[in-house]
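S.,

Sequence below, as promised.
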Amino acid sequence: MDNRYRSILVIEDNDGDFVLIEDYLIEAFKTIQINRHHTFGDYIKNQKSDIKHDLILLDLHLPDSSGSELIHKILESNPPVPVIILTGYADLSLAKDSLKLGIDDFLIKDETTPGMLHKSIEFALSRSLYIKQIQTQNEKLKNIAWTQSHVVRAPLSRIMGIVNFIESDEQQPDELSFWLKQLKSSANEMDAIVKKITSEAQAIQLKKDE
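The prediction came back faster than expected:
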């Protein structure tokens, strides 16, 4: 039995199937909260007010929607957690195709056991966490790239301008000290920016290696 706490939303209209899945979840997880909606409409209606769930178990045939229509609807609702489909042999082909669309996994009701349900849930949660980590890292890399292409330009432009001015011999001898101080200031600014970029890149690499 898994000791980790899980909160699962089951969208299932059949009472018998729900009781069976509920028993399997209780057997697989020591501490679990199970909530239920009977229809897709109930899910949409309560989506914002529902407690935070870790995962959704979705019956593929609900009173108000079923099959491929239901799959597209649940994905269009942009659920913030993984979705596992519960279905029968008749919809096996559709269930397999749903994985290509964004559904995390599917289970054949007649073959499902507590162990299989537990394994499917933990796999879907691990995959979802990994994807979120990749997305976070990509966002940080975008910010680093933006810093490189924009923030670095300001001190670099000043340095180039000062160097060009000094090379032009247009400045007075007593002005040279002033421009050298400006040059040093801009160089220090750019050095700090480069160090920050390096630090952020190393932090991303460390998280990736963990």
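The two ends are 27 Å apart (CA to CA).

Coffee later?
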